[in-house]
């Protein structure tokens, strides 16, 4: 089932008024990528781009076509690691956060 426009607008509004929520979305996208769930991670990252830097600005920053970026961040997209790193970097900078990887050891 496709997400409704209302849901997408709700995410954008929440990200814009709640920096902690935006940071949590970025953390979740990174965690999902690292834990082998790239499809969901791309969709979360796409919502975050829409709510923060926007695809036109992201296209300028990454020197990529906006439509290509949309495809990369679709559930079936296949961005290269370089493109993914550039996208994470642009969103991270817009949120003024640093990402840090911490490994939890399984018992």
Question: Notable features of this structure?
Answer:
single chain, 107 residues, mainly alpha, 6 helices, 0% strand, globular
Describe the 3D structure:
This protein has one domain (about 5-95). About 70% of the residues lie in helices and about 0% in strands. The chain is built from six helices and no strands. It has helices at about 5-15, 20-35, 40-50, 55-60, 65-70, 80-95. The mean pLDDT is about 90.
Summarize the model shown.
It is built from six helices and no strands. With 107 residues, it is an all-alpha fold.
How is the topology of this model organized?
Blueprint: H1 5-17, H2 19-34, H3 38-51, H4 55-62, H5 66-72, H6 81-95
């Amino acid at each position: 089932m496709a997400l409704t426009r209302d849901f997408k607008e709700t995410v954008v509004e929440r990200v814009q008024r709640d920096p902690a929520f935006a940071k949590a979305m970025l953390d979740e996208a990174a965690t999902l990528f690292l834990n082998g769930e790239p499809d969901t991670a791309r969709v979360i990252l796409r919502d975050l781009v829409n709510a923060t830097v926007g695809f036109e600005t992201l296209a300028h920053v990454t020197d990529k076509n906006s439509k290509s970026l949309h495809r990369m961040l679709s559930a079936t997209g296949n961005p290269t690691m370089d493109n993914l790193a550039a996208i994470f970097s642009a969103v991270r900078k817009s949120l003024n956060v640093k990402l840090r990887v911490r490994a939890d050891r399984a018992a």
